[in-house]
Fold this sequence. Notes:
The chain is mainly alpha-helical. It is built from five helices and four strands; from the N terminus they run αβααβαββα. The longest helix is centred in the N-terminal third of the chain and has 11 residues, at 7-17. The protein is globular, with a radius of gyration of 13 Å.
Amino acid sequence: MGYKPTPKSEQVFRLLQKIPKGKITTYKEIGSKLGLNPREVGRILSKNENLRGIKCYKVVGTNREIRGYKLGKTEKIRKLRREGSDILHHQIDFWKWLPTMKLCY
């Protein structure tokens, strides 16, 4: 039996589906938009079973650190790099992404 999304998780997942290719956001940004704690956003994303439709790898820590991913950090880094992110020591190149780290909703 799979995970049954809650209304909160459905909100998070819908928001993530709106992030265009090549863009990223933070747990805090999503939490601020939806009135959730960033850690709660992380817990919701950890339960995502639709990795193709809901691209939770596009979410990073506020300090630009690459956080957990169901398929592992290495795969998250690979996917982010494929979309154009510069990553060094498990962190996003913040200055490159600063102008785009807002959700596109």
